[in-house]
Design goal:
17 strands
Length: 372
């Protein structure tokens, strides 16, 4: 669980770095305080319905954000977004779930630049971080909670915002989002906790009020760039409640083009290896291919800043092994990575079959630039 906690903090630090990177960057500091409530979503099981009906979700949320107001390429492309860090705490204590709390990084993106000068504006947001203080499954103490098997979990929320300006310094903001807790199958059970909260709060602009630039930055017109991406995946996988966790890992490569500064897309291959087959099934004999899988993968990278990007992928297996719980012929991937320079990157993503987690991929990547 220490590795999972470090993973959450690592993702959280992506957004801190992106929000305050560079001593010359101009930003408008914003303090936000809000209250949220909403339903917990059941997975349709009897025990899931029982927990859902016992949870009356209410929480408070505190954020410190930095609205990017420098005239740069990415600031302009994302309509001068706000990046920052936040803390969320459930107010009541739930007998089956505990009192979930979260430390996270966030990015709040308006739908248009012009909307910032209007009294009412709209946008969308992304939050990623680490959730803790949850009460996990225990066969004797907490047997009904099969949503979560660990105290520390990865956290993600996406949603839409609506903002009303009350004064030059104070905004009233509401948001509707989808919130998810999961440990990526590092410890069973892991059905995942899903919430659909409505959030209402106040944003206060701190310090000097800074206007957005009126000019548009100059963009290069060099045509599509191309890139070769190479990645090493490592992680852990738990297959049965109470059983040991085993190493999962793999290698991947992709050929990508960059038709827009905001994203790259391309195609490649993934190779995966699963440890522990002989220990999990001692009565059977396995070949090397039984412990591995191979897939063709289509990739899309959403570039948020010069250094932070969101990898999204859809893979189709050329061969797979259902004993490794590769339950469908396809899989999905989403996560976050940080570029330390033009070549080296690191981060994590989750690989899943439909909505069921396979494992968290702690990733080290290397990129070679191709022709323009």
């Amino acid at each position: 669980m220490q590795g999972l906690f470090r993973m959450g903090i690592f993702v959280f630090l992506f957004f801190i770095n992106g929000s305050v990177y560079g001593q010359q960057a101009k930003y408008q500091k914003i303090l936000s305080f809000s209250y949220e409530t909403g339903p917990m979503l059941s997975n349709g099981t009897e025990w899931g319905d029982q927990i859902k009906h016992a949870v009356d979700y209410k929480a408070i949320d505190l954020q410190i954000g930095w609205r990017k107001v420098s005239m740069t390429k990415f600031n302009y492309l994302y309509r001068y977004p706000t990046l920052g860090v936040g803390f969320n705490s459930t107010i009541p204590y739930f007998t089956k779930l505990g009192r979930p709390q979260v430390i996270y990084g966030f990015m709040d993106i308006p739908f248009s630049i012009a909307a910032k000068s209007n009294r009412i504006s709209f946008g969308y947001f992304l939050q990623m971080g680490v959730g803790f203080n949850l009460k996990p499954f225990h066969p004797d103490i907490n047997p009904i909670n099969q949503y979560i098997g660990s105290k520390v979990n990865c956290y993600m929320q996406v949603g839409l915002t609506s903002t009303v300006r009350l004064t030059n310094r104070i905004d009233f903001q509401t948001s509707l989002g989808f919130k998810h807790f999961s440990n990526g199958a590092t410890k069973r059970p892991n059905a995942g906790i899903n919430l659909f909260p409505l959030n209402m709060g106040i944003n206060v602009l701190l310090g000097d009020l800074i206007s957005l630039p009126d000019e548009k930055p100059v963009f290069e017109k060099n045509g599509n760039h191309s890139f070769w991406n190479f990645a090493l995946y490592t992680g852990m996988r738990n297959y049965e409640i109470g059983a040991p966790s085993y190493f999962r890992g793999g290698l991947g490569f992709n050929y990508l083009i960059e038709p827009s500064p905001k994203y790259r897309l391309g195609i490649g291959m993934d190779f995966f290896w699963a440890q522990g087959m002989h220990l999990r099934f001692p009565e059977q004999n396995f070949s090397f291919q039984d412990q591995t899988s191979l897939a063709v993968v289509g990739s899309w990278e959403w570039q948020l800043t010069e250094r932070i990007f969101i990898p999204i992928a859809f893979g189709a297996y050329l061969y797979r092994n259902e004993l490794n719980e590769e339950t469908t012929w396809f899989y999905q991937r989403i996560g976050a990575r940080y570029r330390f320079g033009n070549n080296l990157s690191a981060g994590m993503q989750i690989k899943a079959h439909k909505a069921r987690a396979d494992f968290f991929e702690f990733t080290l990547g290397y990129t070679l630039e191709g022709e323009k």
